[in-house]
Amino acid sequence: MKSLWSFAALAVLGLASPTWSEEPAKKPPPRSFQVPYRLTKPKHVLVRAKINGKGPYNFIVDTGAPALFVAVPVARKLGIKPDNKDWGVLDRFEIEGGVVLNKIKGRIETPPQIEGMNGLGLAGVELHGMIGYDILARYRLEFDFTRDKMVWTPLDYTPKASMSLGGGRTTGGLDLLGSLMKSLSSLLGTQASPPVRLRGFLGVELKDDEDNPLVQVVLAGGPAGKAGVKVGDRITHIQGRSVLDTDDVQRYVSRKKPGQEITLTVQRGKDSKDITVKLGEGL
Amino acid sequence: MKIYSMALGTIALVLLPCLRYGVAEQPSVKPIEKPVGKSLVVPFETLKSGHMAVKIKVNGKGPYRVIFDTGAPINLLNNKLAKEANLLKGTPTSTLPFMGTIAEVKVKELQVGSAKVNDQQAIVMDHPLVELMSKKLGPLYGIVGFPFFARYRMTIDYQAETLTLVENGYKPANVLRSLESTLLNLMTAGDQPAKVLAPAAQWGLTAKKQADDDEAGVDIEEVLSGSAAAEAGLKAGDRLLTIDGRWTDSLADLYEIASHLKPDASVPIGIKRAGKEMELRIKLRAGL
After folding, report:
1. Buried-most residue among A5, A149, B202, B281 (CB within 10 A)?
2. Is residue A236 within 8 Å of residue A213, measured between CB atoms?
3. Do B228 and B202 form a contact (C-beta atoms < 8 A)?
């Protein structure tokens, strides 16, 4: 039943202790921004932002947060010095899609929920903070999970400063939860962002029809071309496994890294031919 | 302190297999009955703390004032509300100090302003932070989040203090179940396998980024002749900055973005050539 507790804690991610802000909004130009976002596994809306030109960093769009929160290690790395109340000034905060804010204040603080989620790698990417009321209130915000971008339209509006409710960092046991999740991560060896690798490159354009995938174009100088793949070849097998369409080719090639070899069996006229291609880098 | 948290962690480890606490798998999100496209305007209150509060009804009971939180993956309702709306009947519960009864429930009808949705997942508990805010800002009975607003194209306007909701047909997945499986995977899997970033279409280029290069974008190393990239006018030496408005600051970014773009997609690409920023358009092809 402890698990319910942790889920509940996730629910209030960003319901961080209320704080106050004194920074008035600066009027951005009146147009709409298409802001790319990603929905994490725990269903947080994640946008990327650069701070003082560095990054990008991952932020959760969170009306449950009263301000912009920047994780302490990020601020430290960028040399942003918090004042004695843990506020820091960001010279430039640019959200992917073109939203730019200059000289804004942010909380230099790592909320325990962020620490916990990073510890367990729950979000699938490392989280660096939350964008809350102070910033969100300056925009009309459109969320639509059937589209791949949010729409942020600047409002001619200066949000009222949010009030501190006292109690400082009273987080209702979330501090404990954060460190608990973090210590779990050291036991499990989890990482905030899983490692990624790039798939190898063939350099062919393919066409699907009722038959095996047809090589329509062989890019000159590409790995398949160098290995002798020709226009008109039909790829019947990869590594001895039959392929029916381009998706199959994608799947088998994705298992190999650039520099590794892969054997294609192609139908050329009446002949069947094995061709070993050294996968390249590229897309 | 460290030993203490480690011990707690170990306990949690042992407890994790108990995650399936009696609620059957239920990925069903019922199709929406109302026609898509009707626009509903729900007023909200901006609390002095900067949070949003809305009025909800739960199975016809209410109204209750709750926090509206885009950062909340689940809805959360307090014990008082749960009791009044009779949510705990026939549901396994447990109790934790300071948090009252804790249970996972399904709310038959959740109404937020004039917007009604059925079969909403929620957790019942008294969250200390919500209780604290309640004391300072007037009664708050919980939090409404993702399972509700994901069903809509939602526009938040803090100036007008309104949520504008239009059903969009999106069917949110069951967050608790997917988190459970994530956690269970963590328990059982060893090292996390590398995620393969596989472009879904043929671009016809190679790119590079030096380890000590922390400027925006990646370098286009080679544009294969006759390819989609060549047709778009890309040239070796261009600095690729964005694809469809998304930053390409690393090869991982580039491949990740490309993994979502299918053959025949036509997207704008932002580049820098000889110090000048410009936009091209590329039409992707089938291949790899």
Report:
1. B202
2. no
3. yes
CATH, domain range B33-174: 2.40.70.10
Interface residue of B14, B54, B158, B240 to substitute, partner A, most A CBs within 10 Å: B158
Name the residue of chain A whose CA is nearest to B178's CA: A41
Rounded Cα distance between B245 and B242, Å, is: 6
- Which CATH superfamily, name and number, covers A204-278? PDZ domain (2.30.42.10)
Partner A contacted by B52 (CB < 8 A): yes
A129: left (phi over 0), alpha (psi -120 to 50) or beta: left
Q: Give the ipTM of the model, two decimals please.
A: 0.83
| Mean pLDDT score of chain A | 84
Instruction: Domain A2-188: give its CATH code.
Output: 2.40.70.10
Question: Considering only CA atoms, which of A82, A114, A165 is closest in space to residue B51?
Answer: A165
Q: Residue A159 has which token pair?
A: 């949000």
Would an 8 Å CB–CB cutoff place B146 in contact with chain A?
A: yes
Cα–Cα distance measured from residue B120 to residue A11, given in angstroms and rounded to the nearest whole number: 14
Backbone φ and ψ for A244, nearest 5 degrees, come out as -105, -30
Size of interface A-B (CB pairs under 8 A): 352
Per-residue pLDDT tens over the stretch B9-42: 333 333 332 222 222 223 333 444 444 568 999 9
pTM more than 0.90: no
